[in-house]
Amino acid sequence: MMASSYNAKDEDGHITVTGPGGGSLRGKKPENTAFKQQRLPAWQPILTAGTVLPAFFIIGLIFIPIGIGLFVTSNNIKEFEIDYTGVDVSSPCFNCSQSFTWNSTTPCTCTIPFYLEQPYESNVFMYYGLSNFYQNHRRYVKSRDDSQLNGDLESLKKPSKECEPYANHDNKPIAPCGAIANSMFNDTLELFYNDPNGTKIQIPLTATGIAWWTDKHVKFRNPGNNPNLTAAFQGTTKPVNWRRPVYELSSDQNNTGFINEDFIVWMRTAALPTFRKLYRIISKSNNNMVPTLSRGNYTLEVVYNYPVRSFEGRKRMILSTISWMGGKNPFLGIAYITVGSVCFFLGVVLLIIHHKYGNRNNSADIAN
Predict the structure, then answer these.
(1) Cα–Cα dist 290/282, whole Å
(2) N or C, where is the chain less crowded by C-beta within 10 Å?
(3) Cα–Cα distance, 153 to 312 (Å, whole number)
(4) pTM score, two decimals?
């Protein structure tokens, strides 16, 4: 029977194994170093009442005032929302909502009156909101060609396969291709102020400055350097659900084609099925004594193009101001107040327990 023997331990911590042929084999024991033998200096916190209780109270005293500040700031933001889907028979947009087609030759217009109970100062932001629209679907999110949107001429003529089945139509490449572009929001919203003397004053809406700067100047570009976009997009066709080609989205040459800001805003997909996107900006008046939107009666005129009844969706228009923390969102303030209150409450409970039972344990230790 063959046998093997272990020699003395080497200085580096390895064990030499002598085999039957007289050869030596190194064992699998790790080297005798502080790192491999887990002898590095370590710090293990000892949780005592003197360290835990102050931590709970400090977190509570810091989080609660921050939460109150965030909550008050959010509540000071003015916001008005109106649903114009037209589900109810009594709704002004009911007749328009019965259409389930995208390319109706006769646009339907509806008018919704509403009343603002308080004036809106500073800049006012107009949003459109959609519900039950899943822009976060995996295939929907991938259905685009970023090279084409960046102005690449080759991708313009040969869209990516990710755009299928919205890559080609009538043997022509679609520009812009993909399901995201094909389903672009195309309602037209106009706002009017009903003056007490009976006149109807249109509120000026700014269509630029609504997209991210990086999107406008980096990610989206028109193809080539040709200022004539009709020639630049020659040989392509519009998306199936669009009424006009991409180079006719606006009369402003700096806001049409792939760099149209309404289009750019839509192409930034939402993470949740209920979302809002910036539509227009109502700029503050030069006269600081006059609010941007006065208190009174208004009319929202909608050119109803976007069908949502087919997927049981909803459409709404939102008017909102903003603050240093953005739009109206009380959740962050409530979260801070809740966490701070829980920590403070736990601190009080643990303090009572320590005061009631801590001295008893200390006395027992001394007696022992």
Answers:
(1) 14
(2) N
(3) 39
(4) 0.79
